[in-house]
Amino acid sequence: MEQKQQTLPARKNIALVAHDGKKAALQAWCSKHKDDLSRHTLYGTGTTGHLIERNTGLEVIKLLSGPMGGDQQLGAKIAEHEIHMLIFFWDPLASQPHDPDVKALLRLAAVWNIPVACNEVSADMILSSSLMHSELERTLPDYEKYLATRQVNL
């Protein structure tokens, strides 16, 4: 598939997700970086979003909880270019009943070339990057061109 360039805005839409065993860690990370995060629009799966909002005062657009479809809602927003960055504190030591949804979410983040952090250190590095608060060019699949080509060949 051909590629195209797209600009991520300076004010980013950031998805915040955490498995149960990592919710406290994500909430603490958000508290630590409250000033930086407040400069962006935050989205979260239901339980995680409520926890962050209640304990940090940050405004979070809350979707369904992950197992109830929230991971898939975020994946759709990534595919529609509404989410520009994913912070997902996942628990590699715990079995997750909605593991296929989690893998699909991470796959979509890779397909659409958005920054992903899966732990505190990688989230710190992304947030401290000079690119965090500025526009950023990314390469992504040119799906519209692909569809136009497919329609001509049918």
UniProtKB/TrEMBL annotation:
Q: Pfam families attached here? A: MGS
Entries under SMART domains matching the protein: MGS
Biological process (GO) annotations held by this record are: methylglyoxal biosynthetic process
> From the Swiss-Prot or TrEMBL record, what is one GO molecular function term?
methylglyoxal synthase activity
- Positions binding substrate in this chain are 19, 23, 45-48, 65-66, 98
Query: What HAMAP family does this protein map onto?
Result: Methylglyoxal_synth
Protein name, entry field: Methylglyoxal synthase
